[in-house]
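okkk here we go again. third time trying to get the zinc ion bound version out, last two times i messed up the smiles copy paste (missing a bracket lol). double checked this time i swear
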Amino acid sequence: MLPKTRLGKRSPFGALVGSSSCPPAGPGQETGETAVTMATAAGQQAVGRVKGHPGLKVYFQCEGTGSECSGAGDLPSDLPVWSSSGPSSSSSPSCIRSVSSCIDVPRRRRSPGEVEMDELMAAMVLSSLSCSPLLHSPPHPDPTAPPMDCSGGLLSDSGSSGYWSVGHGSGSPAPSPPIAEAEAGLAPPPDEGLDMELEQVLFDEPAPRKRRNSVKTAFRCLWPSCGKVLTSVVGMKRHIRTTHLCRGGEHERCSRSEEDFYYTEITQRAEQQQQLDSDVETLTTPTCRWTAPPPSCPRQGLPFRVRSVSVGEQWLQHQSAPCRRIRGEAKKCRKVYGIEHRDQWCTACRWKKACQRFHD
DNA sequence: ACTGCCGGGAA
DNA sequence: TTCCCGGCAGT
Ligand SMILES: [Zn+2]
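finally!!
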């Protein structure tokens, strides 16, 4: 028996076993999604967008100055929007209702001068970013859902037999994301919880292994027929702001997040990195890029496409990346006995498996 | 270059 | 099941 610490990891698909489909939905497609919208002092901003499915419980807990409300409810997939009463911006049909009609939320108006909303929003952002479909799946699995048991051990790392075996279950390619991408429209799994962006990021890579050497990060402007590449976020934002958005410094605060939707993060090998803009700064400010432009600064009709990784997604990638087991300090049979005494190795070492004699 | 070992395949 | 090995990642 192999040790319990075995991490089956090197499968390129092991990173995201839970989410197997990638619905070919555009940014504006909202069926089956649940937009968590909340109002801030600056306006409304979609802080999270998770795929909803029947049975998915979403828990809110907001702490205000005077009162405290917490709501939990089953979110049907027909898009109930829960939002606190913000400014009546009717930019989106999802902002019509101020309080969900299906969640018993105590009505509470935002008290003036309330500053905890930033914290709340930060918490929502964090929770939405760190929410794995596994962590938020209902404790009682949906009986109507197909028994997709492909999600165990995504983050827990407690699976004794590595991750999952591709071969289990004949003809059931559930955990295979590339196949699932082709069959995206056929059977969306109930565990759908990650943004499709993330899945694209995770699976678009031809080489899923980490090749961090000599790879630099740059940012490409996504404005139509621009394609400018800069090495810094700040420079890119400034480029977008000044060149495309035609804005000066007085709008920087408003459009601070808007530029994020018009550039994408690209990586390129160092030797391929051509002469870029002289504006070289290090990436110090983590930016969160959402899948829709901020409603506070509507720009209708302008095409935007985002294929970038937010910080949380990067974190999630890192967490769920198929990482190998940490090489132990102990010498193994190979090193102890040497190649010439291979017959003295343990069988695992002989078979190039994890050593059973010298555990870490 | 060497080592550990995952994943896969042959016998 | 046993055995072997390609190939990757880390040292
Ligand atoms: Zn050994």
